[in-house]
Amino acid sequence: MKGLEHPVVTAFGAATIVVLTLLAPLVSPLHHELYHFYGPPSAVILPVLLNFAAVWIVLARLLVDGQRFCRLNTSL
Fold first, then answer.
1. pTM value?
2. Over the range 21-58, which residues count as b (16 or more CB within 10 Å of their CB) and which as e?
3. Angle separating helix axes 7-27 and 42-68, nearest 10 degrees
């Protein structure tokens, strides 16, 4: 289970939670605008995927940098 403690994997999980909060209103049965959307599906999916990638990259970079510097490491 050592691989699950890697900062990139942790950032992936956090980014997934952020994207799920963005997707919840889109998949709710009360969201009629998505069901009647006449544009291409990529106009809805692409911004969500780009947001996921951006959050994942930023969080992974912050966690990797935090792990690399001993001054920021609080584990003994």
1. 0.69
2. eeeeeeeeeeeeeeeeeeeeeeeeeeeeeeebeebbee
3. 150
CB 55 within 8 A of CB 19: yes
Amino acid, res. 10: T
Our measurement of the distance from residue 66's CA atom to the centroid of its chain's CA atoms, rounded to an integer in Å, reads 19
Per-residue pLDDT of the chain (76 residues; tens, 9 = 90+): 566 667 888 888 888 888 888 777 777 777 665 666 777 878 878 888 898 899 889 988 888 887 777 665 566 5
Q: For residues 11 and 24, give the distance between their C-alpha atoms in angstroms, rounded to a whole number.
A: 20
List, as one string, the DSSP characters of 14-31.
HHHHHHHHHHHHHHSTT-
